[in-house]
Amino acid sequence: MTHSAAFLAxxxxxxxxxxxxxxxxxxxxxxxxxxxxxxxKLPAGLYGTKDPQYDGVWRQSLALLAQDTVGIRxxxxxxxxxxxxxxxxxxxxxxxxxxxTPCDAKTPRDTxxxxxxxxxxxxxxxxxxxxxxxxxxxxxVQNDDGGWSSMAGAASDANSTSVVIGALAAAGExxxxxxxxxGGKTPYDALLTFRLGCEAKEDARGAFTFQLKAAAPNADAxxxxxxxxxxxxFVVEPAGNGADTPVKPxxxxxxxxxxxxxxxxxxxxxxxxxxxxxxxxxxxxxxxSAMPGAKAQPDVGxxxxxxxxxxxxxxxxxxxxxxxxxxxxxxxxxxxxxPAAYAQLVLAAHATGTDPRSFGGTxxxxxxxxxxxxxxxxxxxxxxxxxxxxxxxxSEGGGFGLVWIIGIGLAIGAGIGFxxxxxxxxxx
Length: 428
Prior knowledge:
The protein contains 14 helices and seven strands. The protein is mainly alpha-helical. A three-stranded antiparallel β-sheet has the order 5-4-7. A two-stranded antiparallel ribbon has the order 1-2.
């Protein structure tokens, strides 16, 4: 779901355990002293101009996904760069400066970057082996509770579990059938543990917490979980035929909790939607975030997440209100934060059936395209489905044609979790 120059981390890992803090712009502590991490020259095919060491794969994946939703066939060099970041074991890290150098034990493999790459490469097609290896790696690092952390071995969190659910679903897996080796727990079992029920304060009920430790309502985690609980990823199709399901907050009348989310992921998503709508209504149709000790500010990225989450739950009327706020207020934020920010807004527009080429006076598609290599084909030049045509070498658009022999390099990026905004902050 789940975006710094391409959404620098919603959370940064602390030490190797990657205990996350919601936010952006800061390097994970364990890797902040890596002198070789920042490339002197950005590689060909990469979207964005800012340092990719913490979000390269993430922002590339979102950019390519967003282009795909509007019928654009990305440049072959952009797709090659993304697929070429994979390690031999199937995992992805944020950025590998030397893909020809094999990943080693120090390479900070990241479930979020891996899951984002899976969703993009599935959408583009032609990368079956790459996707299969990535999915196998994700399954291999599933925690006993059924969930995932951004960094293998750390405690599960709602955001990482949600983005992996989206990847599994995109790859044709049934998330409910992906169970932990010990205990046989599913991703949904893990996700529901982060839900705050009737034991919570009234204004927190239905929300999700980021992690169980120091549990507190978290809008970012709630938007991610409300999407993931429905088995959906970054790309959400708009509700058809004018369908609109009223948002119903979690009810705590006698016996109602079991009916509204106690063990049902879809009902938990409904409760999460209720929490998001309450927060949006309270704040003027946007969500808030704040640096510790600072005044809360509008959170554009998380507001876009909420739009997608509401659309995923078939709540287009509820999604329309924060969408209008985004149309009026998101352009400057996206310009500052680059390709993943533009991509996130494109995906929010797509989820609501809104034209991203006329988004509050901004052509999000043109702006996104301008942050990377020129697309191989636009919808106007492509076939009826917007994706037809061949690259100059005769391969299918977005793919490689021939098997890409991936050299595995020393990864110098670090896990950054569910990157859906551009500020380091604590979610209110």
